Amino acid sequence: MKFLQAYDKFLNWLEVIKNKSSKTVEQYDRHLKYFKKYLENLIESKQLKVKNIDDFQVENIDLDLSEWFRTYLYKKSKNNISIKTANAYMITLRSFLKYLEKIWVKTLSPTSIDLIKQEPRRVEFLTTEELDKLFNAPDLSTIAWVRDLAIMECIYSTWLRISELTSLNVKDINLENKEFAVRWKWRKIRVVYLTDKSANLIKDYLDKRKDTYSPLFIRHNFNKDNISLLYDDSLRLTRFYITSSIKKYALKVWILKDISAHTLRHSFATTLLNAWADLRSIQEMLWHSSIVTTQVYTHVTNPKLKEIHKKFMK
Length: 314
What we know:
With 314 residues, the chain is mostly helical. It has helices at 3-17, 22-44, 63-76, 83-102, 128-135, 143-158, 162-166, 196-208, 232-235, 239-252, 261-274, 279-286, 291-294, 302-312, and strands at residues 179-184, 188-193. It folds into 2 domains: 3-112, DNA polymerase, domain 1; 128-308, Intergrase catalytic core (hpI Integrase, Chain A, Orthogonal Bundle), CATH 1.10.443.10. 54% of the residues lie in helices and 4% in strands.
């Protein structure tokens, strides 16, 4: 089977049969485009005996070709790519080969491709004291600062991913019941819960707004003379803006950790662990498909384990 034909079939299979999210399909597409570029370079340099990429057959993918691709990734990267990023490209190639195996196309076995061993994942989180300092950073004298505090409390108390937060609309939130549903991993829906504090902050923010725009959180640095030209998505906050704002507030109160919006999600998990919530419950609340993913947070329990040991093992 021709590579380009298999490429198109694979992406279609991911979207239609596997029901993968558009972002997941985009990532696979981006990785395979890079693999295609790599093949084209080999063809141009006469290292592959075909005239052009249209003639390349997937049956000709072998272990040497896949390993050269890994080397190509490192050589062509302007900045040294991480092991995690290199592995992501190889995982895509492995998934492509699994698909070919599934449709009975003889090519390199996906099990032949090994991933580079990497250090166990560590997460950055804020202590209770640091969280208090961060949430006291905005002085609430402007609507934008009221909004920023509501955003930080919302992420921390609902364990939302930043992409989920930026897509929220006013109509999505039930402030009376303090809960709302979010779309997760394409078509899956989950319910998350607001604390009294985060619900009150969102209410305060919405009460200060004098507009009818749909997004729950909007930017307020627009020219009011041009308000008739504005529309929902032009006012919706971006991932970059929210992360930059949180970093700014952290630096204001001398929190020097390299934090992002996702740090508040990590802090939510570690807060629960410190309060002795069980790992299975945290897994459910974070919507981790595997308990192994959740176990990365257990590093925070180590001091408590020492306290227990000292208490009972004298």
